[in-house]
Amino acid sequence: MNPDNLPLTALRAFEAAARHLSFQSAAEELHVTPAALSFQIRQLEEILGQPVFIRAHRSVSLSEAGQRLLPGVRDGMESLRRAWRSALRPPQGQLVNVTAGPAFTSKWLAPRLFAFARAHPEIELRFSATFRLLDLRHDDMDVAIRFGPDRAEGLYSGVLLREWLTPMMTPELAAEFPTPESLRHAPLLHHDESPFMNPTIDWPGWFRAAGLDAAPSGGPQFSQADHALDAAISGAGVALGRHTLASEALRNGQLVAPFAVALVARESYRYLCAPEAESRTPVRTFLDWLQQEAAAMTEQEADRDFRTKW
């Protein structure tokens, strides 16, 4: 075979299968049947005259030839994807695709976007508000904002915001429950996101940090932290609120956080970009704006007694 006549379809199948080490997962990504993908890889092996995978009963691994082939094919496919994404972008503007969790998108990003749009009318932002883990290299996403530990795995990334939690309530409830001790008699709101923090940040932890006995049990339980905050804004009770999600409500006076003790999560909000995406001008502009907005939140941290262990 002429080496200039590359079997691009077969190489694409090989790259996906090598990345997943699963013919089934690669077939799902490429929207073909596993049989069709296996046929493409067999064609590639016939052309090369040697196997690129070692097939076991329930797994596959790269052969020696596959290991030699993969780096160049992977780099080539990534170059093709970048070129394709660039060609798809609107010629009249500059598009930045962003993914973040639904709560962070609605509570933190959305209230700030008017200022960004006014300062940068030439940049179009498109948001995918989802908890689904996306592959920045293959899902046409420029920036991901995620809450969790530092697991960049070769991506361009940085810390955007640390997360801290403290009791939050309406000004009316704050007048009714003016001290940490008085919260023993307050309606406490709970959310299911607490156990996902390491260590768990919940009402018993906050009461211990405040030097008080265990928190009273019971109270409404919400699946999402932002739903607990919405209930607190309505006056239904006191939420152990996440600062990032409550920042606008605290700024506009819907909620107050009257007590100094705040628990700091080990995890943080991070921004992540596929390699080299951060150097594209509109992406860099968006990242700089994110960092400026995050820095402006430090005034809400004044006079806080932050606890990292309790």
The quaternary structure here is single chain
Number of helices: 11
Radius of gyration (CA) equals: 25 Å
Strand content: 15-25%
- The average pLDDT score comes to 88
The number of strands is 11
* N→C terminal distance: 67 Å
Residue windows where pLDDT falls under 50 for at least 5 positions: none
Provide the structure class.
alpha/beta
Helix fraction, binned, reads 25-40%
Tell me the overall shape: elongated
Largest sheet properties: 9 strands, mixed
The arrangement of helices and strands along the chain is: HHHEEHEHHEEEHEHEHEHEHE
Q: What is the strand and helix layout of this fold?
A:
Layout lengths: L7 H13 L2 H8 L3 H15 L4 E3 L4 E3 L1 H25 L5 E7 L1 H8 L3 H7 L3 E7 L13 E6 L7 E13 L2 H6 L11 E4 L11 H7 L11 E2 L2 H9 L4 E5 H9 L9 E13 L7 H15 L9 E3 L3
Parallel strand pairs: 3-4, 3-5, 7-8, 7-9, 10-11
Antiparallel strand pairs: 1-2, 5-10, 6-9, 6-10
